[in-house]
Amino acid sequence: WRTAAGLSVETLAMSILAMVIAGVGALLTFIPASRNVAFGDLSGSRSPFGAAVFFVIRTLYIFTRGVPELVWATLIVFMLSPGIVPGAVALGIHNFGILGKLSSEVVEGLDPRPMRALRASGAGNFQLLAYGILPQALPQLLTYLLYRWEVVIRTAIVVGFVAAGGLGREFRLRMSWLHYDDVMLLLVCYLILVLGVDLVSAGLRRLAR
């Protein structure tokens, strides 16, 4: 039980680190990846540079979310030593594309009238972001982030098969050794971990709303 609890903590840490990577990446890129910002509806100008950045980031979103987590983990484990870090990076890269696309679409669906009023009063890009876009978009962005965390905690054990970290590695070893009593113990810990993350995520989503 002590060993299984330690592996559960590693799996939880992998999922949290993955969401930090994905969340920071999405936060830094979702504004220029929004059509109404890139093509001038909210930015106030139609710059070719903004359009080019839009297409580059959207292509990056497609590529990162199009490659499965297991493939990312297989590639990254050759560059990093086996552990929870390769698994977290693989999950983070994949979910960066998903969160980035969802976040940019949230901005595209915002009510443009408050932003236009800010522009008309002389607000710059930073003021538009701080007082117009983020107050409307942030609750939905946090909700998406927490939903993806629920998915990631379920995927972390599978990625652990490849990245040799957390419950996944030990589960694979015990299965190969036919230690089915240990396998059952690991499954129990995994279900407790998933249930705990679901409850925490649901509580945080209520606060975000």
Describe the structure.
With 209 residues, the protein is mainly alpha-helical. The protein has helices at 2-29, 35-38, 48-66, 69-76, 84-108, 113-120, 125-163, 166-176, 180-208. Helix 1 runs parallel beside helix 5 and helix 4 packs across helix 7. The radius of gyration is 20 Å and the shape is elongated. The chain starts with a helix and ends with a helix. The model has no long low-confidence stretch (mean pLDDT 87).
State the order of secondary-structure elements, H for helix, E for strand: HHHHHHHHH
Query: How many strands appear in the DSSP assignment?
Result: 0
Number of helices: 9
In terms of DSSP E residues, the strand content is under 5%
Give the oligomeric state. single chain
Task: State the separation between the terminal residues, measured CA to CA.
Answer: 37 Å
Average predicted confidence as pLDDT:
87
Summarize this, please?
With 209 residues, the chain is an all-alpha fold. The protein is built from nine helices and no strands. It is elongated, with a radius of gyration of 20 Å.
Salient structural properties:
mainly alpha; 209 residues; 9 helices
What topology does this entry show?
Blueprint: H1 2-29, H2 35-38, H3 48-66, H4 69-76, H5 84-108, H6 113-120, H7 125-163, H8 166-176, H9 180-208
